[in-house]
Amino acid sequence: xxxxxxxxxxxxxxxxxxxxxxxxxxxxxxxxxxxxxxxxxxxxxxxxxxxxxxxxxxxxxxxxxxxxxxxxxxxxxxxxxxxxxxxxxxxxxxxxxxxxxxxxxxxxxxxxxxxxxxxxxxxxxxxxxxxxxxxxxxxxxxxxxxxxxxxxxxxxxxxxxxxxxxxxxxxxxxxxxxxxxxxxxxxxxxxxxxxxxxxxxxxxxxxxxxxxxxxxxxxxxxxxxxxxxxxxxxxx
Length: 236
Hints:
single chain, about 240 residues, Glutaredoxin, 2 domains, five-stranded mixed beta sheet, 11 strands, disordered N terminus
C-alpha cells in the first residue's frame, strides 16, 4: 500500500474515532442530565476535553464523563477567551428573528445600523447607556423593555401605555420624569418580552444584541457602540 493510502486511512480512522467519542459523550451526558437539552458535543484540541453545549450553558468533560468542568478556558499565548468565543458562535441570536413589534423603535439619522437593547426603567446602567446613545447616528435602536428590578413593572406598564412610548421612555431615562399614562392598556407585550429574554438567556440589563447576533451585557460608551454597530452591520 502506498504511503498516501496509509495517510488517508489514518485520517479516516481518526475522524471515525472522534465521531464515536462525541456520540458516546453525548449519550452519557443525556443520561446524566435527562432534563437538560444537549445542543452539541465536540472534542476540543486541549487536554482531551469534550465541549458540551447545553441549551443554557457551555461545559467541558472528559472522554468517560467522569468529571465536569464549568468555566472559561483562556489561550495564554493570545489571551483570547476560547470559551466566550465559542459561546458567541453557539448561542448567537438571529437578529432578524427578534419580534420587533414588541419593541419601542428609535430611529436616528438614516437608521441603517441596527441594535436591540433589553433594558429596565429602574436600571442605572441602562440610563447610562441611554445617555451614551443620545449622540448615536445612523442607527435604529429597538428597545425591549424588560422590568426585572423592584418597582420596574409599574413604570414599564406606564411607559407602554403612554400615547408616545418613545417620548415617555426618553423622558424617564434621560430626565427622570416618571411616566404618566393616559389610560390603562394591554401590556401583554411586556410578558412576551420577559419570556423572550428567558428563552435567549438574557437575565441582566442592559443587554445589547447586534446584527451579527453577538450579545453584550452591560453598558458601552458611544465610541464602543459605534465600533460594534459598524462591525456588525451587513456590508452592502
